[in-house]
């Protein structure tokens, strides 16, 4: 399995975790504000992680295809 494929699998896992946190958040009672805030933070962090994984996946694909040289930092 290539690095890009591994990153894609990881992005799917993080995305599923993010969706599960959102589903739990929607089932909270009105007075569970602390829990709601925590789950909102988890969702945001999950979305950011998936975006970064997708950027890394694109770079890995380009490296594997020889269209990108290694050694430089990944930029958004």
From TrEMBL:
The keyword Kinase is assigned to this record: yes
Query: Which positions fall inside the Signal transduction histidine kinase subgroup 3 dimerisation and phosphoacceptor domain?
Result: 9-58
Q: Name one GO molecular function term.
A: phosphorelay sensor kinase activity
Q: Which Gene3D superfamilies match?
A: 1.20.5.1930
Keyword Plastid among record annotations: no
State the Pfam families in the record: HisKA_3
Keywords of the record: Kinase, Transferase
Output a single Gene Ontology CC term carried by this record.
membrane
The protein, known as: Signal transduction histidine kinase
Native source species: Nonomuraea soli
């Amino acid at each position: 399995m290539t690095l890009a494929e591994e990153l894609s699998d990881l992005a799917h896992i993080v995305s599923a975790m993010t969706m599960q946190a959102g589903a739990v958040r929607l089932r909270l009672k009105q007075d569970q504000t602390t829990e709601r805030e925590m789950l909102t933070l988890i969702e945001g962090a999950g979305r950011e992680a998936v975006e970064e994984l997708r950027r890394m996946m694109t770079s890995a694909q380009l490296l594997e295809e020889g269209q990108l040289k290694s050694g430089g930092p990944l930029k958004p």
